[in-house]
Amino acid sequence: MTREHYRDDELLAYLDFNGDVVDVERIARHLSSCDDDCNERLSDLRTLTALFSDPTVHAFSRRSDRVVSRDEVFELQRYEEARRCSRDAEAAFAALLGRPVESWPWYLEATTSAEECEQLVRRIVADARQRLDRSPERALDLLNGAAEIANALPDGPAAAEERAALEKERANALRMLGRYRDALAALDAATLLLRRLPAPTYDLAFIEWGRATVLFGMSRYSEALGLARAVTRTFRSFGDIERAQQVRVLEATILCDQGEVLIARTAYRELAEYFRNAGDRELVARITANLAECEVRLDHPEDATRFAAAAMREYEALHKPVEKIRVHWSLGYSLMRQGYDDAAADALSGAAAAFRNFGMLAEAADVELDMAELLLRRGDWLGVERLARNAAAVFASSDAPVHRARAFGYLQEAVANRTATVDLVAYIRAYVVRAKWDSDAPFEPPAS
Amino acid sequence: MTSNVRPVPGTEPTSVGYTATAPGARMPKHTFAPSAANAAGDEIALTYAAHYPLLEYLAVQRFRIPDEDVGCLIHEVFVAFIRNREKIRNQRTWLVGATCIECRTYWRARGRDELGPLAVDADLHAVTEDLAARVDASIVLGGLPDRCRELLRLRFIEGYSSAEIARQFATTVDYARKLVHRCLSSARALFSRKRGERS
Hints:
The complex is a heterodimer.
Chain A: H1 8-15, H2 24-31, H3 38-52, H4 55-61, H5 70-82, H6 87-97, H7 104-111, H8 114-131, H9 136-151, H10 157-176, H11 180-194, H12 201-217, H13 221-237, H14 241-257, H15 261-278, H16 281-297, H17 301-317, H18 321-337, H19 341-357, H20 361-378, H21 381-396, H22 402-416, H23 422-437
Helix pairs in contact in A: 1-3, 6-8, 8-9, 8-10, 9-10, 10-11, 10-12, 11-12, 12-13, 13-14, 14-15, 15-16, 16-17, 16-18, 17-18, 18-19, 19-20, 20-21, 20-23, 21-22, 22-23
Chain B: H1 39-62, H2 67-83, H3 91-108, H4 124-142, H5 146-156, H6 162-168, H7 173-198
Helix pairs in contact in B: 1-2, 1-3, 2-3, 4-7, 5-7, 6-7
């Protein structure tokens, strides 16, 4: 290269195709073989030209004499610091856990400041959140105790924030316990509290997500779907694409239950790919299990079994054996619903055996309840007798819930009398689901 | 059915404002020096300093929020940011999205609909990158000597030719071209540095 390289003003004239100032063709030839930074400078100039042509850029540059107040940052730093849990609050939390929840307000009144109480509420909510999956009843107990503490706090944005978080987790616990109306009421309370805070749109999206999930549980599909779609749009408007995709899993589930199985399947496939790329294996496992459900509903039992097996492999790799068995159980139940009795029997007996190997005898009995329905439809009374006898034996031990023992005992008797029906099995199944979260719920035999 | 996912729902900085560096060039505004203690508080201060200009540009230039209300609006966005910090993956995009929403809320409360730079299905990441480039360009302009700033305004906003610039600055056409070259070179260097800092 022999020609000198070009100055910025010459390259600018080139960009303007200004033949009066520069030899445009010559510059073009130079650029095609320049071994220095002319092309890079040209690219920068092109960008800068576009930016400097924006009047708002010039207008904003004239705001140079605005100085950010130190107080603005300091206030934010203080807000951040107040949200962290002090060692005293941690110690108070540890002391509370050893006491009955009803005694908390009196204990705290004597020992703890209002600021520590705010931190304590936050701490309890965090702890309850961890317990939700394993024991929603205990989580709700703790949250109700936290609500007593929060109600005594002086009114203000900090208290509103803590109480909103508390109500959100109460709603989650109530939903898991099947208390949907109470869950909606808790979400309403959280919404009112959040609306008192600055810029609450993002926080409210999580509340509405919870509301959509509750409505789905209540089979209010249209409302749930509309709400879920609005939540997806909100998360996208904050650039939170991953959460938007998580909510789309709920959308797909609602669509599937509404009968739009093909649309749901397409969505699940796309979402599985997204979360696979994002490295969220647990969500991939869950979506894969949902794909199995779709395939059952589309009368593709072999594809369903293949997807269920894939989900089970994921849960195996994640060291979540119980989830793995639940997938197997769910597949069996769905196959039974669609009339694929042989495949259903294989899956259900596999799941029951797996639960028994884990020592989860109550869960095994629940699976065998589904198998009993299958055998009743076939008229296999001997098979049903054996299952009913096994299930009753599980709950006959002295430490088993009395009411469940009564339910399975009733079934065993009905089978022995050859009066048991598929409807009776469904009735007992509904009771078993209810009794999981309300162990005091009595078993009442169905009206004959 | 195994079904849906559950909703899985410092100390004072030591300096604020301008710091003079080389003659004729000013450091960008909103500079903070992090304090030694309190990492979380420092992080808040740094995040505030890093993103405030972008949010201010968005609120003032794109949504036309009045000066007297901008600070309060952005402050509320940062309060919400701190409240949700643990859930946020991309801070800058989140802050831009939150500011857009608060600006629209501001105008809706005053009986106006302002969409701002975001169409209904706009790619927020792309919009954020574009806005950040404009803010960087603004900061670069603000850091240039007054004559350079005016020269670039005449060139790019008013569309002045070199001859018109020469007349405006009472000089020769050749010298006007050299001025353009010098000002653009300074701007380009500052802009590259800014972009390098950001990445």
